[in-house]
Amino acid sequence: MNNSFSSSDFKKFLKDSKFDKILIICGENSFKNSGAEKLINDQLINKKTQFYFKKHPYPELDELKKIISEVKKFSPELIIAIGGGSVLDYAKIANALIKSENLREEIINSSYKLENNFTKLVAIPTTAGSGAEVTSNAVIYVDKKKYSIEGSSIRPDFFFLIPELVISASNKIKSSAGFDAIAQAIESLISKKSNEKSISFAEKSLNISLKNFINNLEKPNLDNTSAMCLAANLAGEAINISKTTAPHAVSYSFTSIYNISHGHAVSLTLNKFLKYNYNNLSSANCKFDLKQRFQTLFRLTNTEDISSLDKYLQTLKQKANLEDDFSKLGIDIKNDYDKIISGVNLMRLSNNPIDLDQNALRNIILN
């Protein structure tokens, strides 16, 4: 895969490549506001191009079908996905599942076959958060329930990190995306599937993100934007190995039901699950010393124990204006609990280092 922090490298890539027929998948607002429109259009003068502008706030089946139809009709030699995590996920799935005969059934039953992709895929994130440019999975919602498409062919062929396209994002987008990167790295550290390589990625990511997250919101510049782009990329590499855990598993219902942006949705339960995991260390069902992993977290956050870690993350959320009071977000958590929990991703939940049953889940989320 290509790894670059430069728009000039992207321009060189397009100039030197033999791709003459290019489909660009993007979000209409982010494409214009980020500066991607100028970057792309200046490079495509002699290329045959077509655009698909994402409509839905999160990736869902009906729009995915439209994108697949566009890919089939246009038959590009290259797909460029330029946008946030949803844009990148749409492009990744469309490119991999284009030959699917019954998309809905195959996604729901995880019976899809990932064989040869339709064409080459370039991923250019306009947010510093999801790390989707380096992950071998993508999210899609069917009937407001989240499903994950996984396999090596899902991962883009090339990616470019271009801070100039990220710096102009609104603080609402930056705070949600940035916290997603932080949560991913934290979850990766304690995931059952973590290993030495994922730990290294997660630690490097947190070392960068925790120093730059708030500065990137309050005093954004190319240096701290570049730093957050790298932190998100490293967090993506970490979860590509370890996968995420309970906070991510529960987050998807908050997005699909209440339209809360992904990183913000993850932030709603991160503290709750961290406290539960720490308070139940003796029940850990993982191949590593969970207490040691928490010691790593305390070191990275300059905290001493689970109480000060909890306060540290609460302060981080407050500074980033990430509201975590359910009632203030219009969520009646007690009455809506069953509806929320029905959309939980069980695969991600199983990565939690402490096994969770329905009673534990209810107590964690409602208290």
Question: What this model shows, in words?
Answer:
- The chain has 367 residues and is an alpha/beta fold.
- The protein folds into two domains: 7-164, Rossmann fold; 172-366, Dehydroquinate synthase-like, alpha domain.
- The protein contains 16 helices and seven strands.
- The chain has helices at 7-16, 28-33, 36-43, 61-74, 85-96, 103-108, 171-190, 196-218, 222-242, 246-258, 262-279, 290-301, 306-319, 333-341, 346-349, 358-366; strands at residues 21-27, 48-54, 78-83, 120-125, 137-142, 145-150, 158-159.
- The strands form two sheets. It has a five-stranded parallel sheet. A two-stranded antiparallel sheet has the order 5-6.
- Helix 7 (171-190) runs antiparallel to helix 8.
- The radius of gyration is 20 Å and the shape is globular.
Write the layout of secondary structure elements.
Elements: H1 7-16, E1 21-27, H2 28-33, H3 36-43, E2 48-54, H4 61-74, E3 78-83, H5 85-96, H6 103-108, E4 120-125, E5 137-142, E6 145-150, E7 158-159, H7 171-190, H8 196-218, H9 222-242, H10 246-258, H11 262-279, H12 290-301, H13 306-319, H14 333-341, H15 346-349, H16 358-366
Parallel strand pairs: 1-2, 1-3, 3-4, 4-7
Antiparallel strand pairs: 5-6
Concise account of the structure shown:
This protein has 367 residues and is an alpha/beta fold.
The CATH architecture of the largest domain is Up-down Bundle
Number of strands: 7
* Fraction of residues in helix: 40-55%
Give the overall average pLDDT: 93
What's the number of structural domains?
2
Measure the end-to-end span: 44 Å
Shape: globular
- Strand content is 5-15%
Order of helices and strands: HEHHEHEHHEEEEHHHHHHHHHH
Per DSSP, the total helix count is 16
Structural class: alpha/beta
> Which regions contain 5 or more consecutive residues with pLDDT less than 50?
none
| CATH H level, superfamily name of the largest domain | Dehydroquinate synthase-like - alpha domain
Largest sheet: 5 strands, parallel
CATH class of the largest domain: Mainly Alpha
Computed CA radius of gyration, to the nearest angstrom: 20 Å
Strand order of the largest sheet: 2-1-3-4-7
Reported by name, the CATH topology of the largest domain is Dehydroquinate synthase-like, alpha domain
